Amino acid sequence: MEQKAIIEALGVQPDFDAAREIGRRVEFLKGYLVGSRQAAYVLGISGGVDSLAAGLLAQRAVRALREDGHAATFIAVRLPYGVQADEHDAAAAVAAIRPDRVMTVDIKPAADSLMAAMLAAGTDPVLRHHFILGNVKARQRMVAQYAIAGNASGLVIGTDHAAEALMGFYTKFGDGAADVLPLAGLNKRRVRAVAAALGAPDRLVWKVPTADLESDAPLRPDEDVYGVTYDQIDDFLEGRAIDPAAAGRILSAYRASAHKRALPVPAA
After folding, report:
1. Is 267 part of a structural domain of the chain?
2. Is the pLDDT of residue 233 over 90?
3. Residue 217 has pLDDT above 80, yes or no
4. Is the pTM above the cut of 0.85?
5. Helices 230-237 and 244-256 meet at what angle, rounded to 10?
6. Of residues 225 and 239, which shows the higher confidence score?
7. Distances from the Cα of 40 to the Cα of 31, 58, 167, 179, angstroms
8. Which of 6, 143, 204, 243 is least enclosed by beta carbons within 10 angstroms?
């Protein structure tokens, strides 16, 4: 059955306990940083629950490493495109995480410069402009995070989880690029449960998820893009039966985004 195969491929477990998952994922982050002989984790904080949960896990991991005598730092990076529409949520997320260091990099000059260069080179000035700019923003944010990580002997944390992986809802080599994925295998409701168990504010745990990439549709909810709800996505990932039309949309999105989940393909 395709649903079962997808659940297995995305690593979603049949049982879930927030405390157990927090412990396992913190140990993963600790072990990977030490094993990689690096000294820092870097993560972009958007104001959404995904980066909040990942940030709380990372900060707990580096604190534990320091207690064990290892050099370890967590750097939270704010990456606005000019003025972020929900800046107050991003600030609240940083306050909840209490990272070792906070940096802010405005990606607007770099993203706009690249778009202007593309237009000068003859790119259609209208066709999918806001969609393409959204992907440029996501990739520019990852460029900044890797630059910061390179300077700090660090690794970049990604926030991809099973719900977004299922729908292909991320930018290839943008927010889909990272060194470690501490939320892998969790659906959205489980990410929320982890964040809540780590002490995240309810307002941020239950905030309406939005990628906020397309300038012509600021703060557009993810579910509007999907055409299905996170509850339906989460139920699908937990092996439950859902509305056939919703299941069809989910399966269509999964099949169409297979290239995003694959490594670069070498010539045969």
Report:
1. no
2. yes
3. no
4. yes
5. 80
6. 239
7. 13, 10, 30, 12
8. 243
